Amino acid sequence: MPDWTPISDALRRAGVWDVRDDGTTRAMYSSDASLYRVPPTTVVFPRAIDEVATVLDVCRAEGVPITARGAGTSVAGNAVGPGVVLDFSRHLGRVLGVDPDRRTAVVEPGVVQAVLQRAAAPHGLRFGPDPSTHNRCTIGGMIGNNACGARTLGYGRTSDNVVGLELLTGAGEALSLPAATDTPLLDRLRDVTRTGLATIRTEFGRFGRQASGYGLEHLLPENGFDVVRFLVGSEGTLGIVTRATVRLVQDPAHRVLVALGYDDIASAGDDAKAVLGFRPTACEGIDSRLVDVVRERRGPQAVPLLPRGAAWLFVEIAGDTRDDVLDRARALADGCRAIDALVVDDPARAAALWRIREDGAGLAGRSPAGKPAYAGWEDAAVPPDRMGPYLRDFEALLTEFGLTGLPYGHFADGCLHIRLDLPLDRPSGTDVFRRFLVAAAELVARYGGSLSGEHGDGRARSELLPLMYSPDALRLFGAVKHVFDPDSLLNPGVLVDPSPVDADLRVPQTSPLRTNLALAYRSDDGDFSQAVHRCTGVGKCRADTTGTGGVMCPSYVATREEKDSTRGRARVLQEMVNGSLVSKGWRSPEVHDALDLCLSCKGCGSDCPTGVDMASYKSEVLHQSYRGRLRPVSHYSLGWLPRWAALAGRAPRLVNAMTRLPGVASAALTLGGADRRRNIPQFAPVSFRRWFADTAADRRTTGDPVVLFVDTFTDRFTPEVGIATVRVLEDAGFRPRLTAKRQCCGLTWITTGQLDAARRILGRTVTALAGEGVPIVGMEPSCTAVLRSDGVDLLGTDEARRVADSTATLAELLTDRDGWAPPDLSGTAVVAQPHCHHHAVMGWGTDAALLRRAGARVERLGGCCGLAGNFGVERGHHDVSVAIAEHQLLPAVASAGRDAVILADGYSCRTQIGDLTDRRGMHLAEVLLTGD
Fold first, then answer.
1. What are phi and psi of 92, to 5 degrees?
2. What is the pTM of this model?
């Protein structure tokens, strides 16, 4: 490969502002959501269209290739390249205007699809195509791949919804389409088209999901020589889009979901073509294997009642009148060949069913065999009337190769999605990968299908195009490429002169990492490498899901930097494992840079579709980096907090008085590695354990015994939480008790990576709790989560598993209590900030249900409070901590009525609220005591 490293300096000299060539950035952008790893030389974040032109000019002069990138959610290797990567998502993501009369919008290429939807919604309009990544994918990326989504039947592909493009060709020519009609470039394109009319008419545009190759059918005279539609789906190989005008549509007034059950997935495919006669807007096929995964990962409540069967079609019927929609829905249910059917006209029930499809698609990164499942052959399509037979032959092919996956897709479009457990970690894995792709391509070609139905060919399929197209068609591809990009600078290796499908695969470039690890990684065969490679790059961590209760990833929401996303961190850790771009192991500066703003919130552990657990990975990195070495001072001050709190607890009033002396608190914070803008919390004059002992005679001596796990925060800082919990439990007929000695879960040692000490501390605690033999109730969510999850991972003992099974939150214990009814909270408005660990490990649904059962009006906030234990206290994190709080927590608190309850079970959450507002957060136990 040529040495392109001087390109960064050349770009800076030319006035390009945001140019990055550091190891951290190159590691993060070495992959997209595909199997491929191609480290770029430089990543540029253009701030204006003029900068894009400058980058193109400099790269053309230096002979350096360019790859345009949006959110990096491409699964075929379309958004990685060896030279300069242009990331449009950071600065060029505006909706420039919405014209409701013409039903169009003008957008920059980096605008997220969901942002465009929000801009169009006030006008009663929307952008039609809706891929599953709609909350983070960009319109530019959708144009590159000709993205579709579930509702293509109703709204068409992206190429059907783009009416104008402004772009720069590889030769540097600026085109404004469709206004430009008579330019030398377009004349040359017409000449190429004329030479291949017969080939184009016979090989292209044969069915709706023929996405492979260039869309040459749009250049036919009878199709109006539509260059705009032709360019959509060209995967950034012909030009760089700088602005787009898109068509908007009006949503129909009524929607009904028809769920159809079948004996197997192929039978569902057989019926898909017939569904089209009922004018659906969507027809999605899912398999029982996918449903089983959703049920296992999300719980039984995530799968509502389905029709009988082992596979289903979810069909959406939409229209302007309710009667028409219901008539068509019932006719479909009666007229298809399903063994059972369900017509759902309740929007909430329909949304719950659609969520099975959405969640399942995200969870497909693990195969039914429990192995990592990869993209690469995830997007083939055949004419819809051949879907059933194709599925049978495809299943036979999987059996032949010993592969498994979770099939689903847009069945009435003929498109099948599936990730497969290809053995890429084995020495022969690359050979198996190539042989399977060739066999799968030959199969789809026999059915008259397309290698890609919407994701594009990228690096995964471009080499296979000769199995689908004739030599004449391939020559046309090359001729078109030469017209737009004569020097082959744009996205090289894709479509024309393709890279081998088995070149630059990410997983085979790494090695197992199993020795001397502190954590067990049981779900990943004890392999840290396999754990960090759970990240497939789908980028859900770049989406703002706080509006629906999501947490991941709070630092990215605050900074909008890729390195502060779960995916960015995972990519850096992957590069650390393979030792290439990140070459100094655990202590690599790139690793610590990427992990610095990780809050260890555990949000990714529940919200990431593939189960990435960045909190554990960060603990491992800190453990390995500082084992036997001097640590950052905050590891001793905040990481050893329970020890310092125990010492202060001997004379709490004296300690409190000292911290109020002028300059003392500021000095203490500085010496402890904390931000001076934080407050030193006041120690309770009487600890909870002391109160419990002193009031023993006042409490009931009968009732079902439970053990209260007394954490440091409740004991030393907020004993009122423990007191309220005792009273609520006694009112419910329990007899709470404490362990004979103080115990600690080791949380602060875990989050600072002091895992040897954490193992000792937690081991003693688990032994003590396991000997109690009664239910254990946690009061502090983060400590409860340690007992429920971290203890098993860190200790791996039967005792730890027994303790995990015995540990419950207050809401869980009360909900399962026969005969218990919550106090009346009717009329009480509750603004709830669930602790991140509560959300991720235990789930907050039980708490929400309990409060609503009590009559409270609950507003559940998503995201993190921003303090996250030691994170927001540490020097260098304050501004990000506050920015995270400002995203949802602080506005919600500010707008809450003075009589509203601010519910925050976590000590960190209550501390953040107290530090940044004039309100006080309350624990669930305290809230329940306020009821009648």
1. -110, 65
2. 0.95
